[in-house]
Write a structure and sequence with these properties.
Order of helices and strands: EEEEEEHEHHEHEHEHEH
Strand order of the largest sheet: 4-5-7-6-8-9-10-11
Oligomer: single chain
Shape: globular
Distance between the termini: 56 Å
Number of strands: 11
Strand content: 15-25%
Helix content: 10-25%
Radius of gyration: 19 Å
Number of helices: 7
Low-confidence stretches: none
Mean pLDDT: 93
Amino acid sequence: MASTVKEVAKELLPLVRVYKDGSVERLVGSPYVPPSTDQDPETGVSSKDITISHNPVISARLYLPKLTQSDKKCPILVYFHGGGFCIESSFSFLDHRYLNALVSQSQVVAVSVEYRLAPEHPLPAAYEDSWAALQWVTSHKIAEDPDKEPWLLKYGDFDRVYIGGDSAGGNIAHNIAMQAGVESLPNDVKIAGAILSHPYFWGSRPIGSEPSDNHEKSFSCLVWEFVYPSASGSIDNEMVNPVGPGKPSLAKLGCSRLLVCVAGKDSLRDSIWYVDAVKESGFEGEVELFEVEGEDHAFHVFYPETQEC
C-alpha cells in the first residue's frame, strides 16, 4: 500500500512548509474573517472587499470610519500587512481587528492590500502588487469611470495620501516610497507620509544589539532567502538592506514625512539605524522615530487596545 505521508521539499519553521507535490502548508496565522458591511459593533467602522486587478489577482479590504458629516473628506491610508511575506492576510482576524481600531481612531479611509504571498509567489510579487494597488487608489483622484470605488471618490482626500505597514509591510512601505521617488503616481498624487511600524530590514553585517554569532543563519536571514531566493546580493539586496555602497540614496524617498516605529524588545529594533541613515542622506522631509520600551515585535497588531500604540 502506497504511503500517504507527503514528502517535504523545504520549510521555514515555524511559518511555512512546502511539499514535493507543490502544495504549501501555512503552520501559523490567524483565521480569515468577513468584512463588517454593517459597521463593526465596537468601532462603528464599515468594511468591504474589492478586486483591484484580475491578472494578477490583487484584492483589498476597504475601511470607512463612522462619520458625523456625510460630506467629510478623510485622509487615505494604503496599508500593507505583516507576516514575513508568506503568512497572514488583509482578510485575517488580527489585521481586520487592528485596522478597525486604527481607522476608528485616526478617521482615515484605509485600503488594506492583499498582495500575493511567497513561496507560491516569491518576491518581488508583493512589491509589484503593492505598487499596483497604490496606483489604483491614486487613479481615483480624477475619475470619470462610474465603476470606480465610491468610498474613495466620495470620502477620500487625495492631498492626504499615506502609506504604511508593519514588519514585512513596513519593508514594503519603504520600498513603495522609494519607487514613488522615481516614478510618478496617477494624477500626480504625492505621498504625504509613510509609516513604518517595526520594519523588516536586515543585512549580512550585524549592527547594534543584533547577535554576531551565526548571524548568517538568523531567522531574519532565513526568511529573506525563503521569500526571495533569486535576490541579487542575497540579504544585502537593497530591498531589505537599504544602506551601504551602491544602494540608492534614501534622499529619494517619495514622501514628505516619515514615521518609523520600533519596540524595545524586538529583534528588529536596531532598524533605528534606518532613521539615522535617512536623516544623513539629505532627505528633505520630516523624519520621526517612535520607540516603545518593553514591548516586542508587532505588539500593536496583537494587542490593539494597548495605550502604547
